Amino acid sequence: MASKLPGLSGQEVSRLTLKIVVIARQEAIVKKFSAILRFFTQFGFIVFTYLVRTFEKLGWRFARQSASHIILVKEGEMVTLSVPDHHEVAKGTLHGLIRTAGLTVEEFIANV
Questions:
Q1: What is the tens place of the pLDDT at every residue in 17-52?
Q2: Quick one: CATH architecture of 47-110?
Q3: What whole-number distance in Å separates Cα of residue 67 and Cα of residue 39?
Q4: Which positions ≥6 away from 90 have C-beta within 8 Å?
């Protein structure tokens, strides 16, 4: 197959195309994360679904629901997380959950 870019073989063009796709996906993830972080810092709360999804990425699993709270557990951990099932979870509640999970805010944000 002839390369459409002068001086590059077809295989080099394929590798370059793959790198461009990977970079574009990474930029999309960064934009999404930036939008979530801007929203959180501007309004002082995080949406419940993002919160639970992030804890699930960190190894926490749904155990049960108790009234308006979701109980998350993690294998090997003695503590449980009681996440309020509200659309908006306040900043102080979020910090308490992060602390209870044994994480730093930076570790949590890296997984949003």
A1: 777 777 777 777 767 666 666 666 665 667 888 889
A2: 2-Layer Sandwich (3.30)
A3: 28
A4: 44, 45
